[in-house]
Amino acid sequence: HPSISQVLVADSDKFTHPLAETWARLVQLVQQKGEYSHIITASNSFGKNILPRAAALLDVSPITDVIAISSSNQFVRPIYAGNALCTVRYSGSNPCMLSVRSTSFAVSVDSKSNEAPISQVDLSTFDEDFVGKSRYINHTAQVTERPDLGNAQVVITGGRALKSAENFKMIEKLAEKLGAAVGATRAAVDAGFVPNDLQVGQTGKIVAPKLYMAFGVSGAIQHLAGIRDSKVIVAVNKDADAPIFQVADYGLVGDLFEVIPELLEKLPEKK
Ligand SMILES: Cc1cc2nc3c(=O)[nH]c(=O)nc-3n(C[C@H](O)[C@H](O)[C@H](O)COP(=O)(O)OP(=O)(O)OC[C@H]3O[C@@H](n4cnc5c(N)ncnc54)[C@H](O)[C@@H]3O)c2cc1C
């Protein structure tokens, strides 16, 4: 990419497992040597885990969830669960540390390209004992063929109205037919229908698909905070006054236990 002038590689078995403590220390080390003006990470769980730790080590205050960059020290970020946008100016010392919502930034496809040198980070001063009390035990991951929730073009979400994990399988079947990712409200996650990595919203994932379909979702502000950038929102809810209809492009007042089976029947099989 033409904007990349250098790639730094920290190649060591110290970083085999993504422990935030170790990686934050690495960011500190790289910053101390490079004296960069800005350090930016994506607002995903990995970035959110490392950024505050690295910022504390570097004694600066990070700015999180940036959705627009107005200048080198001025940024826009949502507040009150996305109901207001706040413009903030960074007036601290370098580095200015940001987490950015990747759903708010389009990747520019530039015809020019640039070869950037790749250099190894000098880890001779990396402190082995720094990791402190955190130890890597094991890693469990959900193996799924479905698209990643954060990048999916289509997301099908189910809410508390699904009533059980068994019923939630209807949402999964529909997602399969549409090649979509599955999402859930916090109420559905708290009720144990699905694991919490499927939660969409203020305290879950932020999504920006082309099509977002919500079944039995009331549309609480904390949920809407995660779906605002979706292109088309479709909602099915049996309560015509549900707040989700205020943001939906298409709304159907109906019972999901009738609508989903009908959709499953009428939609063609996935090729
Ligand atoms: C600090 C904080 C952070 C939060 N973060 C999040 C977050 O990240 N994500 C999130 O989702 N929530 C979050 N919440 C919770 C949020 O406030 C709501 O409680 C939650 O989103 C409600 O989930 P729901 O829409 O599934 O359930 P409900 O609000 O109970 O809504 C269920 C809906 O289903 C409809 N319904 C019922 N039966 C049927 C049927 N048979 N067919 C069709 N429709 C039906 C009902 O009319 C209703 O509108 C947060 C709350 C707090 C306080």
TrEMBL record:
It comes from the Eukaryota. Gene3D superfamilies: HUPs, TPP-binding domain. One of its GO terms (molecular function) is electron transfer activity. GO terms for cellular component: mitochondrial matrix. It comes from Salix udensis. Its cofactor is FAD. Transmembrane segments: none annotated. This is Electron transfer flavoprotein subunit alpha. Binds 1 FAD per dimer. The electron transfer flavoprotein serves as a specific electron acceptor for several dehydrogenases, including five acyl-CoA dehydrogenases, glutaryl-CoA and sarcosine dehydrogenase. It transfers the electrons to the main mitochondrial respiratory chain via ETF-ubiquinone oxidoreductase (ETF dehydrogenase). FAD binds at residues 160, 185-186, 199-203, 216-223, 237. PROSITE patterns: ETF_ALPHA (PS00696).
